[in-house]
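hey m, so remember when u said the tokens were messed up on ur end? i reran from scratch. heres the input so u can diff it against urs
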Amino acid sequence: MRWHYAARRHQARQDSDALAPIFPAANTKASLESLLHYLSDRRQKVLGVLPNLPPSTIATLEASPPLSSVTKEDLFSIPPEPIPDLEVEQVYRLAQVVDTALFKTYLLIRPTLVGSLCRLANYCEVAEVEGVLKERKVRSDVTCN
């Protein structure tokens, strides 16, 4: 168990080192903490809309192309309106973006929370998340939905 913890700390340190060219060292943690709070807030708002959809609509959305195949232009075309006013497809894509970004942020600053996000109903980009979890050799019981 001690080795597993040390390996996680080492991976977190490598992740932080990878961000060094992007963020100044003094602001990295604070910036990611702010992002974490923002994403958590967005997630609650998105989840307030999606569960109210009929199961047939959810099934149709889940059959849509993966987030990785959507262009940036399509994502940037989602209007900055209140989430309940967006179209169903836009809310679903927003949920995918928020949950996947939340997953990645947890990996960087709070890796112990990755499992709790994955055990909840979520909209993470499956291919992306599975690849990261396999690469890090995370236990098989921690898989995102």
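this time it looks ok to me. The CA atoms of residues 55 and 61 lie 10 Å apart. if urs says something different then somethings off w ur setup not the seq
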